[in-house]
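Escalation from tier 1.

The customer reports that the assembly of two entities below gives different C-alpha cells on two consecutive runs. Tier 1 could not reproduce it. I'm attaching the input and our single run for tier 2 to review.
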Amino acid sequence: MIKEEALKELEAIVGQEHVYTDPAFLATYSRDISITYERWPDAVVRPRFTVEIQKIMRWANKWKVPIYVTSGRGFEGYGGPVSPFGGLILDLARMNTIHEINDKLYYVVVEPGVTYRQLVRELEKNYPHLMLDVIGGSPESSVLGNTISRGVGHTWWPYCEHFECLCGMEVVLPTGEVVRTGSGQLPGSKSWHIFKWGFGPWIDGIFSQSNFGVVTKIGLWVAPRPKAYDWVAIAAPKPENAGDILEFTGKVILHNIIGGGVTISNAVASFACNFTYPWEINGGTAPLPREWIEEMKEKHHIGEYTLFGPIYADSEEALQAKWKTLKEILKQYPELYLMDRADALNCAEIAHRVLYDQLGRPHRSLWGWAHWRGGGLSFYSPIAPFTKEAGLELQEIGVKTTAKYGFDYMMKYVAGLRAIHHVGLLTYKVPDELDRARRCFLELIKNYMDAGYYPYRVNPFAQDYLLSRIDRGYLLVCQKIKKALDPNNILMPGYYVPE
Amino acid sequence: MVKYPNLEKVATWRSKGDIFYLCTICRYCISETYEYLDGEDKSAGYQNLCPTFDLWEHEAYSSLGRISIARALYEGKMELTDKALELIYACSLCGACREECFARRRTKYYEIHEAKPSPFDPMEILLALRRDAVELGKGPLPVQQGWMKQIVEKNNPYYEAHEARLDWLKPEIREKLPKEAEVVYFVGCTSAYRQKNIANATVNILEKTGVNYTIMDPEEWCCGSPAYMTGRMDVFKRQLEHNIEAVKKYKAKRVITSCAGCYRMWKKEYPETLGVKLPFEVLHTVELLQELVKNGKIRLENKVEKTVTYHDPCHIGRHLRDGGELYKPLFEPPREVLQAIPGITLKEMPRKLWYSFCCSSGGGFRSAFPRESIEIASRRVKEALDQKVDALVSTCPFCYRNFKDAIEEKKFNIELYDVVELVEKAMA
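Tier 1 run:
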C-alpha cells in the first residue's frame, strides 16, 4: 500500500485528477486478455510531461514504491498494463504529442502515448508520401511501446523491424535524470534522429525490453510510400509443407522479392479471423478433428499454411520483374501454389493484410483471435531460422504441446531478414480455461527452448521461466547495469532482468 | 459478499460469470472502427464515438471501464464505492459502444461465414448494474433521485405542476381536443415543459393537415424513459401501465411522439416489458411527416434556403437495432422529409447513422453531469459547424435542449431546428 502522505506528494506533481486510487479506476488495470494473473495496482498515475516523470522517479525512490510502466492499451497478447507486483502504474497514455514529422528526411519523433492510428491519420492527412510500418495488432497500440519492445510490422525491411528504425531516444532514468541517446547526447547536434550512433558507446539497446529507464521520446524512421505495390498469396496445402513454406519465404525475402513483413498463418488461425470456435464439435476439450480442419480448408479455399506477402517496387516494370523471380523460386516447391486472388481476399486475415497493414493502415480485425474461444489470447513467439527443418519442428512441438492441453495449434509467422518470428496464438475461454492455458503456455515456452527456439519477447508473468535459462555472464552485466541505474530497484522490478 | 441479481441475469454465456471476459479490452467501444474499410477515412478527425471517453479521456469513462467495474463487483473484488457509482452513471447510454463492440459485433463484416453473434451486450450490462445499484439503495445519483420523485408525484421530471403540462397549447385548440381520436399525440415532458416550440409546431401541422388527433389531457404522464435508463424499473413500470391504459381509453389507432426517448419506450420497451403487442401503432412525428408528405397532405411549397446537417438521436437510431419486424432505426424518414423541403441542402456530419455522436443529454447524464453534458453537446455542434452549415437539425426535444444550451453558452453561430419546425416553415 502507498502511504497517504506519499499519495499527496504524487498529486502535487501531476495534479490530483491524474492520480487514481479508487478501485473503480484501478479495475481497468487489473486484468488483460493474456495469461497474466489478475493483480490490482495500489494506484495509477498519468503524467503529461517528461519533467513530471523525473519527479515521479524521485518520489518513488523516496517512498520505495515500485513502478510499472505502460503506454496505454493496445493489443495485449504479450500482456497488458497489469503490474505483476502491484505498486504504482505509470500510464503514459496522456503523453501523446507528435513532436516532429520530417517529410524530407523521413522520420517522426513521438511520445509514448502516440498510437498507430494517431500517427497514421496525421501522415495520411498531411504527409501522404510517408508510410508508417504498422503492426497487425490494435491501431490503439503505442508506436514507441511497440518499438522498444522490438515488435515487428508488415511492410518491408528495415521498416518492418521497428527497433532497427529507432534513431535517438529521450529516457528518464530510475533516479530521475534525463538521458538523450545517439546524437542527442551532443549539444546542438543536428542529427539526433538521423544518425543513430552518436559518439562513444551506443546505449539505446539497453532501454529496449528492459527496466533501465522510462523512454519518453523516440525518433523513428518511416518509409517513403512505394510507387508500386502488389500482393501475393501462396498456399502450402498440407502440414508436411510446413518446412517448404518457411524455406521459400527465406529465399524471397533475402532476394528482396517480397517485403520483410510477410505473414504466414496456419489454417486454424485463419479460421479464427472469420468465425468463432465450433464448440458444438467437441466442446473444446480436445483439438479440432483433422477432418473438420480439412473440410474447412476446402470450403474456404485456404491451405494448411497461407502466405500473404507485399511486393513493393519503384515502378510497374520492377514489380513485374519481382513477380517473375518469385514464380521462378516457387517452381522449386512444387506443392506450393499461388492462390486465386478472390479466394484469398475472402479470408479476413488476408484481406486485412493486403488492404490495410501492407499499405501502412492499421486495422483491428485480428481481434478475432481473442474471440475465437472466448476472450483469451497469449502470444508465444520463438525465433527460428528459415529452414525446412525448423518449419517442421516448430509445427511438431506446437501441435503436440497444445493438443496435450486440449487446445489447437494456431500460429502465424512474421518474417525478419534472417529469421522468422513464430508467433504462436494460444487462445482460450476466460475464465474457465485460463489455468489450463497458463500451464500450456509455460510448457510451450519450455519445449521450444529445449529445441533451441527462444522467444523474442515474453509476457512479464512468464519471464522468470525464461530468464532462468539465460547465460549467467549476460545476466551479470544486466544486473550490474540495473544496480547502477536503479539502486532502489523501483522501476519494473524483475522485468526482463531478474532481481 | 454483496449480490448483484440483475448482473447475475446477464452474466452467463457458457459458464457462470464468463460474459464479462468477452470484453477483450480492445477499445472498439471508444472509437471508430473500420475507418479504412473502403479506403476512406470516414470520420475525418472525429475518431471517438464514446462521448464520455471523448470528454474525460480515461478508459474508466468508457464501456470497457464500466465492464471492468461490473466484473469486479460481480466477483466481489471491489465494493460499490461512490466513485464507482458515479462512473456507472457517467454515461448517456447512447449505445455507440454496443455498435462497435468487437465481442458483440465481430460478425458484422463476415456474415458470409457461419459466425454466431455473441450474447455480450455492454448496454444491458450497464443497465443491470444500475438496477442493482438502485436495489442496493445506492442508485441513482442524488440529483436523479430528486427528479425521480417528481416523476412519481407530478408525472414529469422537471419539477413542474402536472396541470401545467399543456399550458403551451392554444386554449381554443385545447378546448376542442376530442376524447376519442385516431391519433394520440404524446407530447412528452421536454416538449411540454421546455421545448414548447416543437410541440407547437407539431400541433400546427396536425391542425393544418386535418389529422384526426388528440392529446391526452390530463392523462399524459412521463413515458418513464428517465427511470428506465437510471435503473428505477418500479417507476418505469408505473408510467408504462398508466400511459398504455390512457391511450386505450382514447381508442387511438396510432400514438405519435416528438421525443426520441418517448418513442423508444413506446415502440420497444413497453411491449417488450409487458410481453405483448400494443393494440395501436407507434410512430415518431418524422414518420408521420414522411407519410403526409408522400400522400400529398403536406405540400412543401415555401422555400427554406438553408444548408443543414442532421443529428441522429440515439433513441430512434442505433437503439432500435435488431428489432426485426417490430422496430427499426429511423435513419431515412428525417432525411427524406428534409430533402423534400425546397431550398434545403443536407450535408452529413462524419459521425452519423449508426455512428452518430451522442449529444449526451440522455441516460440521466445531463442532470447528473450538467457541465460535462454541455461540453459534449458543444463538441457535436462544432462537428456540425465544421460542415459549414447554417443549421443543426434533429428530431428529439432532449437533444435540441442540450444543443440549445451549448449554442447559447458557447455563442456558436448556428441555427437550431427540429424537423417539424422546418416543415412548418415550408408548408403552403
